[in-house]
Amino acid sequence: MAVLPLKTIGDPILRSKAKEVENVNERTREIIKNMKDTLHENEGLGLAANQVGILQQIVVISIEDEEIVLINPEIVEKEGRKLMEEGCLSVPGRQGAVPRAEEIMVEYRNEEENQQRRKFSDLAARVIQHEIDHLKGELFVDKVVDISSAAPEKEPGSVE
């Protein structure tokens, strides 16, 4: 078991774009195994490679007893929109409401280098969108919506 150290907000690698994986080899499989170990050790739902200092387009998610590896993932369709609280292993102690699509269609390669196309919804869709943002050098804190600004303004002289 190899648990990798997590990069946290302020580390420039989190703002860097990950490169496409050309081919899946033993080194790639070792990275994936270490990412899975790191994800489970930190009790996360998803992990992008740049969160452990590796600028490759690899995402590992673990939701509802299913572990999914996405290599070079690309969202090709989005449906719906929902605002929910998010947190991040790389931004400890902070949470915020982020709007995300409720359903997505993703094209990616798996560990065996097979091209996949799969629909994800609800929590899995949210986690995948969050992790793909990491691969682009984006953090959830960039997308947090201040819902207090959406509150209706008070009428002059009104009392709460």
TrEMBL record:
Cofactor dependency: Fe(2+)
Signal peptide annotation: none
GO MF annotation terms: metal ion binding; peptide deformylase activity
Database matches in SUPFAM superfamilies: Peptide deformylase
Keyword Metal-binding: yes
One family name in Pfam for this protein: Pep_deformylase
Top EC class for this record: hydrolase
Entry annotated with the keyword Metal-binding: yes
CC cofactor note: Binds 1 Fe(2+) ion.
Binding site for Fe cation: C88, H130, H134
GO biological process: translation
Entry annotation: catalytic residues: E131
InterPro entries listed in its UniProt record: Peptide_deformylase, Peptide_deformylase_sf
Enzyme Commission (EC) number: 3.5.1.88
HAMAP family: Pep_deformylase
Function: Removes the formyl group from the N-terminal Met of newly synthesized proteins. Requires at least a dipeptide for an efficient rate of reaction. N-terminal L-methionine is a prerequisite for activity but the enzyme has broad specificity at other positions.
NCBIfam families given in the database record: pept_deformyl (TIGR00079), PRK00150.1-3 (NF001159)
UniProt record similarity statement: Belongs to the polypeptide deformylase family.
Protein name: Peptide deformylase
Species of the source: Halarsenatibacter silvermanii
Lineage: Bacteria, Bacillati, Bacillota, Clostridia, Halanaerobiales
Name of the gene encoding the protein in the UniProt record: def
